[in-house]
Amino acid sequence: xxxxxxxxxxxxxxxxxxxxxxxxxxxxxxxxxxxxxxxxxxxxxxxxxxxxxxxxxxxxxxxxxxxxxxxxxxxxxxxxxxxxxxxxxxxxxxxxxxxxxxxxxxxxxxxxxxxxxxxxxxxxxxxxxxxxxxxxxxxxxxxxxxxxxxxxxxxxxxxxxxxxxxxxxxxxxxxxxxxxxxxxxxxxxxxxxxxxxxxxxxxxxxxxxxxxxxxxxxxxxxxxxxxxxxxxxxxxxxxxxxxxxxxxxxxxxxxxxxxxxxxxxxxxxxxxxxxxxxxxxxxxxxxxxxxxxxxxxxxxxxxxxxxxxxxxxxxxxxxxxxxxxxxxxxxxxxxxxxxxxxxxxxxxxxxxxxxxxxxxxxxxxxxxxxxxxxxxxxxxxxxxxxxxxxxxxxxxxxxxxxxxxxxxxxxxxxxxxxxxxxxxxxxxxxxxxxxxxxxxxxxxxxxxxxxxxxxxxxxxxxxxxxxxxxxxxxxxxxx
Amino acid sequence: xxxxxxxxxxxxxxxxxxxxxxxxxxxxxxxxxxxxxxxxxxxxxxxxxxxxxxxxxxxxxxxxxxxxxxxxxxxxxxxxxxxxxxxxxxxxxxxxxxxxxxxxxxxxxxxxxxxxxxxxxxxxxxxxxxxxxxxxxxxxxxxxxxxxxxxxxxxxxxxxxxxxxxxxxxxxxxxxxxxxxxxxxxxxxxxxxxxxxxxxxxxxxxxxxxxxxxxxxxxxxxxxxxxxxxxxxxxxxxxxxxxxxxxxxxxxxxxxxxxxxxxxxxxxxxxxxxxxxxxxxxxxxxxxxxxxxxxxxxxxxxxxxxxxxxxxxxxxxxxxxxxxxxxxxxxxxxxxxxxxxxxxxxxxxxxxxxxxxxxxxxxxxxxxxxxxxxxxxxxxxxxxxxxxxxxxxxxxxxxxxxxxxxxxxxxxxxxxxxxxxxxxxxxxxxxxxxxxxxxxxxxxxxxxxxxxxxxxxxxxxxxxxxxxxxxxxxxxxxxxxxxxxxxxxxxxxxx
Lengths: 479, 495
What we know:
The structure holds two protein chains of two kinds. Chain A has two domains: 8-171 and 223-253, no CATH class; 265-479, no CATH class.
């Protein structure tokens, strides 16, 4: 691709990533200065810094287009995903403050920020080497975070499990990358996409499948979903939330971009493949969730199913499809974080993560009861909440692309999904418990998290327009 | 800009619901007073709209429109024709009465009344919205309040099962219909969810034949079309009284009316093709539900099956595909809504006092609960199509409409006769229930049950009035209904 000279505006185009790195250094520095009993405030530092970075992403007129000689490309969709990760990061940092079993210290928040940095780079990467580095940065930080409660065997086990699965899928993906390099002689998406047209079809598909293993691991789609329930259950709950929204969204950011700009030559193939994967992912996630007694496992299977819904939008391979998938990930981030935030507070109090331990929650704290209910209704696709509008837009994308069978499977799955979400709602609202008179205090950070997510769940449902318009215009550049 | 009557009707209960939730949790009376006020505002406005609706002009009136999701062509677009006017009035009346008869609720009244009002919001929206996207949103908006109301305040032995069954059935139905709606949206090429604009599109006959069925049956689930009706008696038996009232009274009408507006009006060729066959499902509604009601001895189940049978008549009116049938169907929706709600209210009054629903164990209630007995008699007589009540006016039109529809399929007149015979069955089970519950000896353990309170009396009176007045003087309602039917037929080009 010829010699490219360094252009200083390149640095501006990755300003959010630079700021993330700076913030992590600041947090690690502040950690040294803080006495042990005040380390909890690191969560506030992290969240405040992330809010500033989010404001930069949303408001500052950063340069767009390719930078660093085509290694990264900043475009509308990348901006949307950057914002999604930052939003997830802010909420997770705040809710970590209230998770009692967790050691609050600098490395925890620092790793969170490294992981966010990796995700952010995943969203802009347009080069296989860059992409691989970004994915490893995300992954390795996350392995440590999952096992962060070293004293708890489940957490350590989950960390190891996540690492092993992650390393395996990453290796397969890297092997796929090497095939692409060998077959097409390059690492940039543009160059590869051109060359892909001349690669023999079976070889191209094989390379694609190997790459898909790595992406599929991140989004937890079937058959790369096996790690999810165990890891989600064992990880510290805020990190579970982080994996279920941030990591998953990052996987989709990479998937969407790669399908559009790296594998356009294979489009007929990957559409069929993704339709099948989406069907299986939704169905398997939802059916297994029905039997779960542990709320974190239930939400793990639920988030596998939710990934299946997003895959519908991906498989639609159209502007509506991409915009709806991105919009759905925004609302999904909000509602899933809300559900986990309630789980954090309840498990602090009861020490249990069983669905049964949520009995009488609505009587203990009306606020928490309604929060969890709204989050679950939205996940289940009940109007007027954001999850409903998101699902509707995704189905619209599928029908526009003629994927009627996929839509029908999706519809049936929404019904199965609602069944187990309602079962939890029932426990929260209808079941009585002996401790139901004990009030449940909601600490300030959780109040902010839940207040914000509740408002977002309702507003994205009844006034979806501004956000959807933003996403729509962002995806216009791709089509 | 004109005064936004419909928006006030739709959102007054929503705002009230939010206010109620903001009250401190230990308040008992304030939620009730607020709920009554909020629903009364809607009722007042609905009566206003009914009186102010220009019957000679017809068409959609009180129209309001503003963008909502312009990228995909969806807007907040409300308006009512004569049919909508009647249904809005019905919902407003029943919502207000449901609040009144729930005054005794002591368990978490804040949540109860807020959810009840939210349910009303969804129904108002589903009757008035002319935008398909938001129509579905409001249509499904009723799901979550209903689920919570049944599961928290319902009848213990059945509430978890009944609530889940009802919710999943209705969700599945509406999602199936939704797929059809999206197909309409993309096939029209207009990129709009505006029903008025979509009504002007001529879809190919093949398209109409394929998509009519999922849309009509999908929404038909909410109208308890046979064989997708079984959620209805179970759900009603499990639900608290106010929910049974609203659900049987208006929600089923939402299903029937939406099935009509979307499936029949947007896909008339599909309707002409399929109606002669699915009319048999509706006959099953009448025949099957009537037979079950004849042998059932649970007071609430009897009314539940009666409502399934009545919805069969409503849907048949739509299936007639002519002006008489449609006008009859709309009148029937209005009449049935009141009858069902009133019957459920009275079942609730008896049950709250005796904790028995088995009709054979009750008896002599007329001695203690005379206003309830009177109310049940009115509902019962209206229900069996007695001349002098509004339901008679409705049924006559439906059956004449079916008779007239013989050109569509030769078996329509036969169907009219079978269904008319069903009315005899209605008379039998209503009289039987009345006799067991209200006549005979009063059991000693019921000698001291509290009498019917003043608010309940107000509710019974409010619901009886339209049935009787409309029966004696049908011209009060019929011109409005017929102006709606005329404007719909005009759009279809005299179909």
